[in-house]
């Protein structure tokens, strides 16, 4: 998730918070994606398929606003067999052309090929380690790597992290593509490996509680 390009307006205070009619504070980008913000973003994800999907969608998002991808997510799921890695891994050149002709998704050949490649890499990784989710969650940053306060300054000045750079390097070594450090940091934010809801956002404490209760995959 990038900061300024997803903001619903320019008048964002330094805390990065907006308030609703009842005075409840949320992250500045919440008005453009309310359900995603309140019920999905930052909540821990344990499922191999959904983690693979998120990596792929974050790759498609590169150079675009996340809201564009979110609006197309159901079309992506339909086009890519709900991100079933076994099915996507068997895609042929004919499937690539089918996807390039699908107006519901982002028709970028390199990103489509990356999604197919990454399905094959995900299968290999799971066969080697037993679980894609277990391997990915081992790259969760330690608590002392996280800031005491998450505000707009932190968002604007930290598009990546040491943990996301490490994850990116490890995935690239295994042949994954479109998994740069910034993309992997957005992935970590989305799947709950970090809690980057703004300090003071009504969801920040809820995500902390969800992360504390979450049983890490092995």
Q: How would you describe this structure to a colleague?
A:
The chain has 218 residues and is an all-alpha fold. The protein is built from 12 helices and 2 strands; from the N terminus they run ββαααααααααααα. It has helices at 34-39, 48-61, 66-71, 73-79, 85-89, 93-100, 109-129, 132-137, 152-157, 162-173, 181-190, 202-213; strands at 17-19, 25-27. A hairpin with a 5-residue loop joins β1 (17-19) and β2 (25-27). α2 runs antiparallel to α7, α2 (48-61) packs across α11 (181-190) and α10 crosses α11 (181-190). The longest helix has 21 residues, at 109-129.
List its salient traits.
single chain; 218 residues; Endonuclease III, domain 1; 2 domains; two-stranded antiparallel ribbon; 2 strands; 52% helix; globular; disordered N terminus
User: What global shape is seen?
Assistant: globular
Overall mean pLDDT score?
93
For the termini, the CA-CA separation is 27 Å
- Number of helices, where a helix is a run of at least 4 consecutive DSSP H or I residues: 12
Numbering strands along the chain, what is their spatial order in the largest sheet? 1-2
How many DSSP E strands? Answer: 2
Give the CATH H-level superfamily of the largest domain: Hypothetical protein, domain 2
| CATH-defined architecture of the largest domain | Orthogonal Bundle
Helix and strand string, N-terminal first?
Answer: EEHHHHHHHHHHHH
SS strand fraction: under 5%
**Structural category:** mainly alpha
CATH topology of the largest domain: Endonuclease III, domain 1
CATH class annotation of the largest domain: Mainly Alpha
The share of residues in helices is 40-55%
Biggest sheet, open or closed, and with what strands and sense? 2 strands, antiparallel
* CA radius of gyration: 17 Å
The total tally of domains equals 2
Q: Report low-confidence residues grouped into runs of 5 or more.
A: 2-11
């Amino acid at each position: 998730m990038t900061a300024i390009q997803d903001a619903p307006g320019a008048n964002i205070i330094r805390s990065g918070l907006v308030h609703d009619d009842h005075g409840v504070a949320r992250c500045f980008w919440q008005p453009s994606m309310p359900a995603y913000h309140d019920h999905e973003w930052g909540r821990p994800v344990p499922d191999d398929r959904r983690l693979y999907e998120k990596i792929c969608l974050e790759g498609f998002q590169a150079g675009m606003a996340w809201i564009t991808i979110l609006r197309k997510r159901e079309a992506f799921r339909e086009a890519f067999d709900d991100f079933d890695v076994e099915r996507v891994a068997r895609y042929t050149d004919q499937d690539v052309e089918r996807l390039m002709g699908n107006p519901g998704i982002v028709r970028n050949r390199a990103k489509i090929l990356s999604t197919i490649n990454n399905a094959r890499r995900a299968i290999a990784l799971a066969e080697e380690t037993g679980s894609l989710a277990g391997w990915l969650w081992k790259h969760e940053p330690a608590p002392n790597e996280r800031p005491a306060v998450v505000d707009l300054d932190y968002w604007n000045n930290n598009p990546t992290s040491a943990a996301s750079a490490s994850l990116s390097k490890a995935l690239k070594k295994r042949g994954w593509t479109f998994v740069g450090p910034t993309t992997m940091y957005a992935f970590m934010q989305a799947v709950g490996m970090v809690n980057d809801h703004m300090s003071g956002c009504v969801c920040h404490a809820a995500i902390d509680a969800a992360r504390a209760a979450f049983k890490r995959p092995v």
